Input
Amino acid sequence: MTLTIATWNINSVRLREGLVARLLREEAPDVLCLQECKSPVEAIPMQAFRELGYDHIVARGQKGYNGVAILSRLPLMDAGGEDFAQLGHARHVAARLENGLVIHNLYVPAGGDVPDRAENEKFGQKLDFLTELRDHFRWQQPDRAILVGDLNIAPREDDVWNHKSLMKIVSHTPIEVEHLEAARDAGAWVDVTRQDIPEGPLFSWWSYRAAEWDMADKGRRLDHIWATPDIAGAAHGSRILRAARGWNQPSDHAPVFASFDL
Output
């Protein structure tokens, strides 16, 4: 069985219901993980998605902020959700497929504008979130699992448009990269996207502030798909649907895809 999974920070699932439906109709992933849904679970417009064959959802939501959801054509069971750093935010949800595969969907805090926890509480919350994520997977070693989401960090030099210019900009600072890599190492997670596309610039986010985002191409790879070593070798077909950033009233993120032969 080939399972195709996509992850997308949608920046309001109700505002962009039509874009989600378009993605499901045109790309037809088996599972779509959304972040920044900005909606209570009961207000997610599931009817439109069910009409396209996505009858199953596991989600955590809150009004106007955050929110994570897993939509699926395959039956899902809710596998819990953690409140990392005790922020009281809807930033993690997990689901289990009938074949035992666990999918973690994460929305890591952006961290504000100043990369100093003494001056910026939000940056400290981001680092604490990643530390608790690390500890969670250190003590509950994952297997047969996929982790996806807007992790709000571009770890590699070629994950940003200009490494030197962004080293002091939140999302690419050394301390954030260190914390993200510690969390990845704790679960022995494999960065599937870079396993499939090992070299070259690769972006999934372009700022709304750049009117000519496509031409300027000042992007960052903030959205990720990881897998545990026992299934990482079954991954293939990784890609970023850059064209979606240019759809009408788009999210500033583009969907990221990977397939697994399981």
Remarks:
- The first helix runs from residue 17 to 27.
- The chain has one domain: 2-261.
- Residues 106 and 149 are 5 Å apart (CA to CA).
- The radius of gyration is 17 Å.
